[in-house]
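Customer ticket, subject: "Can you confirm the structure for HTH-type transcriptional activator CmpR?"

Message body: Hello, I'm evaluating your service for our small team and ran a test protein. I'd like someone to confirm that this is what the system normally returns, since I don't have a reference to compare against.
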Amino acid sequence: MSSIRFFRTFVAVARSGSFAAASERVSLTPAAVSLQMRALEDDLGLTLFDRSGKIVSLSESGHRLLPRAEQLLALYDDLRDGPDGDHEVVGSINVGAVATSMAFLARAVLILREAHPKLKVQPAINFSGDLSLRVRAGELDAALAVKNAHKLPAGTQWTPLYTEPFVFIANRQSAGRADIGGLMKRRLFLRPSRSTHTGALIDAFVRRNRLRFGEFLEINSLRTMVELVQQDVGITIVPLTRAARWEDDPRLRVTYFDDPTAHRAVGLFESEARSHLTSALRRVLLDTIEQDDQLRQ
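Agent reply: Thanks for trying us out. I re-ran your input and got the following:
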C-alpha cells in the first residue's frame, strides 16, 4: 500500500518536471524517486508518467490524480498540525490572475477571508507578462495563470486546476456550414497575441494542424476577439474560458477540435517560500472546482 511520502514524491515530480529535480525536494536519489513512482503506479494500477522522451511528463491519469494528491497531502498536513486539523493562518499574500480567471479567484478569496480572517489576501488582475516569473521574483506570492511549455521557474510550484479547450468561433449567419479551413483562408483571422502564453499555444496548435490563413489581426483580449466575431469582423480560435457562455449565443457558431492537445491548462503558481500561506488558497480553489464540477454533472 502506498504511503503519504509516495504521494508527496509524486507531487514533487509533477511540479518539477523530472525525477532528478524532485529528488532534491524530497531528499532522495533520482533512482529512489523512480522506484517510488513505479511502486505507486503498480499500487494504483495506473500509468502516471509518459517516459517516452528525456523529460518526464504526466500522463492523462497523472493529471487526474495530481489535484487529488494535493488534497490528500493538504488534509494530512492539517491533521498533523493539530488534533482537530483546525489552525489559524496568519499573514498576508498578494495573488495575481489573468483576466479570464479573475472572477474565479475573487470567489475563492471571499471564501478564504471568511475561513481565515487573519490571512490578508490582496488579489490583482494582470493583462500581460509571465506571472510565474513574477512569483519567482517575489512580486507575487501566487498567481492563477496559464501554464506554458517552458520549465517551471526555480523556487515555484504549480498546481493544475482546470483545462479550457480551444474552439473555432465564427459568426453563425455568415459562416453557415462552411468548413473551418475555408473560413480561415477567406476571413480575417483574429488571433491572440503571440507574446502571451495563450497566443503561443494557439499559434503552435495552428501550425501543428497546418491550418492556413490569410489576413490576420493580433489582439490581447479574448473578449474583444469574440465581440468582433459577433459583429462579423472575422473568425477566431480561442480557449473556451470556464465562465464563457459563447455556445448559448445565437450569433456565434462554436466548433470544438478533435484533438486532445487543443487546450490550455490554468493553475496556481506559488512561491515555495510562501506556500505555508498560499496553500490555504490552493485548497479553496481545488474545493471550489470540485463543487462546480459536481453541480455541472
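A couple of notes from the result: The two ends are 32 Å apart (CA to CA). The domain at 1-87 is CATH 1.10.10.10 (Arc Repressor Mutant, subunit A). Feel free to reply with more questions.
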